[in-house]
Amino acid sequence: MALLELCHVSKRYRRGVRCVEVLDDVSLEVLEREVIAVWGPGRSGRSTLLRIAAGIVAPDEGVVRFRGSPLRPGGGAIAGGVTYCRPAFHSLEGQAVLEELIASQLALGVRPAIARLRASHELERVGARQCEGYRPFELDRAEEVRVAIARALLQGPSLLLIDEPTKGVSSMERERILELLRSLTDDGVAVLMTLDKGVGLFGADRALSLAEGRLRGHVVPELAPVVELPLRASG
After folding, report:
1. CA-to-CA distance for 31 and 16, rounded, in angstroms?
2. Residues 6+ apart with CB under 8 A from 81
3. What letter would DSSP give residue 27?
4. Is residue 29 helix, strand or coil?
5. Fewest 10 Å CB contacts: which of 40, 98, 153, 157?
6. Which CATH architecture has domain 4-88+155-223?
7. DSSP character at residue 235
8. 3-class DSSP state for residue 4?
9. In angstroms, rounded to a whole number, what is the distance separating the alpha carbons of residues 17 and 87?
10. Once rounded to an integer, what is the mean pLDDT over residues 154-177?
11. How many Å apart are CA 110 and CA 135, to the nearest integer?
12. 3-class state of residue 15 by DSSP
């Protein structure tokens, strides 16, 4: 059984008098411990695809299943389920990174001592332990991405959905972040990510493209070879 299934999903939005088909009969299966990269141009529907896969937005047609059960928007969090991550880190209270990660757990009833241990562990896990005392405006772009991933991992997901984790980072940091996402599969976390360019696909099991509402590539894992693209983008 696939971890996540999108079955004949379609989504439309109105832009003025126009009705734009953002996703047109899209199907996709994601397996346990798999890394999938979806790339495409701006306004191709990449973010919409992730938000539907996370149960944040409802499709106009089709169904989304997680571990075989329908994933319904507003249905509440699934333990060990799906976590959607936007790789940006903000704090409304202006707190330092560690305190912000602790506060996000206290709101869920986690005891303070355990919340602190978990927050420190996840920052260490993503290579951002040095950021504990930084405030959001003091983080560089790569650190911001790593801290956002740490906050998402505090939810204990089986599937991490992350939107453009390499946007705005240097080529060297891009590869390191992709290596980090690949390493999450060692802990049983599958990753579905979007990219704005067809470069930097290092470590992906499958690379798919999205344009004009259509998802192209090996959408069914049984048919897909392992993608070996250790590309080092210039610039």
Report:
1. 38
2. 66, 157, 158, 159
3. E
4. strand
5. 98
6. 3-Layer(aba) Sandwich (3.40)
7. -
8. strand
9. 32
10. 92
11. 23
12. strand
- 20 within 8 A of 12, measured Cβ to Cβ: yes
Q: What type of residue sits at position 175?
A: E
Do residues 181 and 26 make contact, with C-beta atoms less than 8 angstroms apart?
Answer: no
What do you get for the CA distance between the two ends of the chain, in Å?
41
DSSP E strands in the chain: the ranges are: 4-15, 18-30, 35-39, 61-66, 69-70, 82-85, 159-163, 190-195, 206-211, 214-216
Cβ of 137: how many Cβ atoms within 10 Å? 10
Characterise 195 by phi-psi region: left (phi > 0), alpha (psi -120 to 50), beta (else).
beta
In sequence order, what are the beta bridge partners of 9?
Answer: 26
Concatenate the DSSP letters of all residues of 39-79 into one string: E--TTSSHHHHHHHHTTSS--SEEEEEETTEE--TTS---T
> Distance between CA atoms of 60 and 16, rounded to whole angstroms?
19
Whole-angstrom distance, CA of residue 180 vs CA of residue 149 = 10
Parse the chain into domains and list their residue ranges: 4-88+155-223, 90-138
pLDDT tens digits, one per residue of 32-63: 999 999 988 877 889 999 999 999 999 999 99
Write the pLDDT tens digit of every residue in 81-109: 899 998 887 766 678 999 999 998 998 89
